Amino acid sequence: MCIVTYTPINEGFIFTSSRDESMHRPTKNPDIHLHGAQQLCYAKDLQKGGTWFAIAVKEQKLSCLLNAAQGDTSYQNPKSRGMLPLFELLSSTEITVGKTMPCVLITFNFDAPLFLKETHWKGDLRTVSVKDVATSYLWASDNLYEEHDIKTFKEKWATLKKNKSIEDVKAFHDACAQPLNSDIYKRKNADVMTVSTTTMIKNNRRFEVHHQNRVTNTNLVIDLNSI
After folding, report:
1. Confidence band for 71, pLDDT divided at 50, 70 and 90
2. Pairwise CA distance, residues 48 & 25, whole Å
């Protein structure tokens, strides 16, 4: 859960998550999952049961996770970070999940009024910051990338034109996608690569999820307007 971008566009936005993970970690491609009366769209991590990017279709809300390095990592049997996006979308109150390994949780309510927030979990402590929905953002996992590499990603992102298209965003994530055991990773020889890129497009006509599985070299599109 490693490079995430938010891009405001005319009458909507593009939200993209490129996932860096072990190529051997079992994962199911995005699908619609029923949680009571709620319909959530997400890819499922079959090892822990969670996800890194989930969308509440009817509620018009998304939540996306990045692992982080800054925080307490000494807990015994910590809560799975991959459950946080689901807890965030399914809970009507402020979520409390106990001790969790460091991560950043990005949540966006895209039903009026728009509300974008970033929550940095540091063990059982957290800080929350509200973001300007009119500004584009890039986040990257500091447990996988060095600070200077994250700075380079952000500088390249900033050089893109203000009115980015879906093609611009996808091309950027393609350029940042890392091959197996890339030298850029902090973790060496762990069979990590950019295993997938998931993009949500929302405007007055389109409400879609585009998923590129980089391990199997396959693509799928889910039309959420039809859900």
Report:
1. low
2. 10
Residue with tokens 């950043």: 104
How sure is the predictor about 49, in pLDDT bands with cuts at 50, 70 and 90? very high
Q: What is the domain range of residue 135?
A: 3-226
Backbone angles phi, psi at 144, to 5 degrees: -110, -30
CATH number of the domain at 13, please: 3.60.60.10
The DSSP result for 122-166, as a single string, is: EETEEEEEEE-TTS-EEEE-TTTS-HHHHHHHHHHHHHS-SS--H
Q: How far apart are CA 192 and CA 178, in angstroms?
A: 9
* Distance from C-alpha of 54 to C-alpha of 49, rounded to nearest angstrom: 13
DSSP reduced 3-state for 173? helix
